[in-house]
Structures are given as structure tokens and as C-alpha cells.
What we know:
Distance between the termini: 22 Å
Structural class: mainly alpha
Number of strands: 0
Helix content: 55-70%
Number of helices: 9
Radius of gyration: 19 Å
Shape: globular
Amino acid sequence: MSFSAFAHHVRDPARAYGRRVSALRSCVQLYRPIGFEAGLSYLRDVAGPHERDETALLDALAALTASRAGWHAHQRAFDAERRAAKSVGHRSPRRSVPNPYPVPLVWYGAVRPAALHALGFWQERRLPAITASRDPLATRVEVLSTTCQRDEGELAPRARESLDRIAATLHDRLRTAPEAATLARTRQLLFLVRLMRTAADPSTAALVDPPAV
Length: 213
């Protein structure tokens, strides 16, 4: 079903409450710029315990819907700009123009807060298992993630340079077609790189397009 159909189920008081919560989860599955589990966690943070409180459930849906509407507005603005550019002979989009297709790369309306929340979620829930692999890049990502959260998204120039080098190495690793476990870990680390870049510079976050998890 579509996002709108699931959203209608969330709002329907005639439905069993558990089904309404499940419908919200389906909405998040369809719009998850910071990942599914991190997205649900962020909605709990901004709206409250939606699994057991109806006001929180509706507030969570409202926050999610507003962010998705921001993504669609960005798409419309991008389309209008591309039509104007093509009319004067510019067939390819400029690299400096954030492309909102095919999937959202930021949580529209709360770009930095959502990215920082997702970093915290991964730091607690997922990163320990990744660093347990003894991958040196994972350890470096963990250090930078801790710094980024501590400083509320600010990264010093040297830290940004280090992050760029890590990203380049991870992209090289993807191209070597490693074993499945290494490939999955590499994609997860690139996702964390994207979150840190988003937190560090929300204005250019949509230009960053590593593989998402």
C-alpha cells in the first residue's frame, strides 16, 4: 500500500491500536532517510511513546508526514530548476545542485537533529558489533562519530579531511567486490559517514550519496 493509505490507517480510531502502530511502522518503512529503526527512535524522541499513547502516535505521524512533504517540495523545486536549465541548453544537472531523487538522504525539517539522533542510535545499538570485526576503518568511524555527537555536529577541518579519506577508502572497498559480510559492513560505515556529513553541514547534506542501509 501507499504511504497515504498507511497514514489513513494510523489516524483511524476504529482500528485496533496495535494495527495503527503497525501502520506507522509501514509509513516509516516507506520514508526512512535515517534508516528504519533510527527513524522510529527519532519519532519516539520528538513525539513520545507512540506504541502506547494515541497523542504521541498522531504527533509522530504528523512529524513524519511534514518531513516527507518537505522532501516532495524539494523534488518539485528541483524539477522546476531542471526544466529551466534545459530550456537554455544545460542538459545535465550541476554537481552543486542537491538531487532529491531517488530516495531522501536527509530528514527534511530537522536535518541536523535527526542525523545526530541516528548517530547516537547507531553508536549504542549497531556500532559495537561493527567495531568488533576489528576493521580499522570501523574504529576510526567510531572515534569520529563520538566526536561529532559530543560537539553537536561540529567537525574540525582535520576531522572532515579524515572523514573524506575514510569515505574514499570505503568506496574503493565497495568496488573490489569483497565478501558479503565485508560488503554489508562497508555500506553501514558509509551510512554513518553520510550521517556525520549531514550533521556537520546540513546545507550540503543532500549532495552526499553513499549507499544506504
